[in-house]
Amino acid sequence: MSASKHLSDLTARIIPCLDVAAGRVVKGTNFKQLIDMGDPVELALKYEQQGADELVFLDIKASVDHQPSALTMVQNVAMNLSIPFAVGGGIKTMDDVHRFFNAGADKVTLNTMAVTEPDLINQISRQYGSQSIVVAIDVNREDGGELSVYTHGGSQRTTLDYHHWVREVVDRGAGEILLTAMHKDGTGTGFDCGLLNELGADYPIQVIASGGANGPEDFLQAIQAGADAVLAAGIFHRNEYTVKDIKDFLIQHQIPMRTTP
Amino acid sequence: MKPVIMIDLNSGNLLSLENALSREHQPLSRIQQPDAYDFTGDEILVLPGQGRFGFIADRMDALGWRDFLSKWLINGGHLVGICVGMQVLFEGSAEDPDTRGLGFFAGRCERLNHPKTPMVGWAKLDSYKLNMKDQYAYFVNSYGVPDCENSTAKVTYGDTFCAAVQKNRVYGFQFHPEKSGRFGRELLQHVCQ
């Protein structure tokens, strides 16, 4: 357990993640079997009302699809939502970044482009401030025990050294990292608390834990291991738990949470 | 209702703020330069700010706002500053030590004394002013004003800093009311009437 010695009034954030394709929220099992889950604005408002602290939209078909649908969606979400939200997927150039911010996004998340063109992190940070850029790191523990960083939605293994990469993104100006433990993702066995612990309370930016949430206990463990925020998708979309259910559980376990009237 | 004028310093999108402020019967516009609007003195100015202290201050100079705002403040005008838009109402900031703020509030911004910056997320306000008691506000900042006699709410991140300030009809919020859920929107509408 890595409790910070620094005082903080911040509450840990609970962040539902919505996978989007062609302007609709989809259940992202694989590209061939996309199940329509509904309208992004309606779902976003539902989660806001449940007490979500922030939302993340990932346009999982952005590379195949074109961006206009994503931009329209971002505009509609921005018009209706009164909590912050981040957008990711298909961002390749500073022009893409400008478009998303102009449409009303509060943050962008980069994954593949952060690896293939890391200077984009510096550019976004310089122009919009580090608070506007979240770098998503997909890490996998290989069979041999070593940690590898993946891109392209977890399909391509890179040669990056994980421990070096989590430092480099900070130096380049990322404001937060979204850490997905691929070996835990979808397994329903909880987050990789070892990785969270290892980053520690003094890691210089906030850490959003992702991958593996099966129940409220997993959120508790991730936060106790040092996550500043926890992101989850399926558990909310399948209506297994509401955001409020998770928060109520965490409050019972003495984790300060933002509550909404 | 008094017109609300958003000062557009080109420092990021104003859409959320615009949405939070827009309501029936209240004129709302954004302008880039003070001479682009025929001011009567009865308007409510909103000064948002994303990015560096120095950048915002430079934009104020470049677009002719510094002198205008100094007079506005001296004459008791109504103004709401948000995030760096609140910070520039102070004397200066450790972020850009050579840049002057407007100096309406006494004090300077210092870097937050916490290993994780920027501070990102929600913190509970503890203040009876402006219905802020026990409400959660969304913060995104690396700098803050440690102390000010006009402080109306404080939060702690490393050390304690001013979450909100007020002197007469000048309101400052270090957090983002436009991103702070229903509470934030109601707060904004309250101080803009």
From TrEMBL, chain A:
EC number: 4.3.2.10
Keywords (A to Z) from UniProt: Amino-acid biosynthesis, Histidine biosynthesis, Lyase
Keyword Hydrolase: no
GO biological process: L-histidine biosynthetic process
GO MF terms held by the record: imidazoleglycerol-phosphate synthase activity; lyase activity
Reactions it catalyzes: 5-[(5-phospho-1-deoxy-D-ribulos-1-ylimino)methylamino]-1-(5-phospho-beta-D-ribosyl)imidazole-4-carboxamide + L-glutamine = D-erythro-1-(imidazol-4-yl)glycerol 3-phosphate + 5-amino-1-(5-phospho-beta-D-ribosyl)imidazole-4-carboxamide + L-glutamate + H(+)
Domain of life of the organism encoding this protein: Bacteria
UniProt entry tagged with the keyword RNA-binding: no
Biological pathway: Amino-acid biosynthesis; L-histidine biosynthesis; L-histidine from 5-phospho-alpha-D-ribose 1-diphosphate: step 5/9
Enzyme class: lyase
Quaternary structure annotation from Swiss-Prot or TrEMBL: Heterodimer of HisH and HisF.
Family as reported in the entry's similarity comment: Belongs to the HisA/HisF family.
Physiological role: IGPS catalyzes the conversion of PRFAR and glutamine to IGP, AICAR and glutamate. The HisF subunit catalyzes the cyclization activity that produces IGP and AICAR from PRFAR using the ammonia provided by the HisH subunit.
Protein name listed in UniProt: imidazole glycerol-phosphate synthase
From TrEMBL, chain B:
Catalytic-site annotation from UniProt: C83, H176, E178
Keyword field contains Protein biosynthesis: no
Keywords, sorted A to Z: Amino-acid biosynthesis, Glutamine amidotransferase, Histidine biosynthesis, Hydrolase, Lyase
GO BP terms in the entry: L-histidine biosynthetic process
Domain of life: Bacteria
Keyword Hydrolase: yes
GO molecular function, one term: imidazoleglycerol-phosphate synthase activity
Record Gene3D superfamilies: 3.40.50.880
Domain Glutamine amidotransferase: 28-186
InterPro entries tied to this protein: Class_I_gatase-like (IPR029062), GATASE (IPR017926), Imidazole-glycPsynth_HisH (IPR010139)
Pathway(s) this gene product operates in, as recorded in its UniProt entry: Amino-acid biosynthesis; L-histidine biosynthesis; L-histidine from 5-phospho-alpha-D-ribose 1-diphosphate: step 5/9
Catalysed reaction, written as an equation: 5-[(5-phospho-1-deoxy-D-ribulos-1-ylimino)methylamino]-1-(5-phospho-beta-D-ribosyl)imidazole-4-carboxamide + L-glutamine = D-erythro-1-(imidazol-4-yl)glycerol 3-phosphate + 5-amino-1-(5-phospho-beta-D-ribosyl)imidazole-4-carboxamide + L-glutamate + H(+); L-glutamine + H2O = L-glutamate + NH4(+)
Subunit structure: Heterodimer of HisH and HisF.
PANTHER family xrefs: IMIDAZOLE GLYCEROL PHOSPHATE SYNTHASE SUBUNIT HISH
Full protein name: Imidazole glycerol phosphate synthase subunit HisH
Protein source organism: Marinicella pacifica
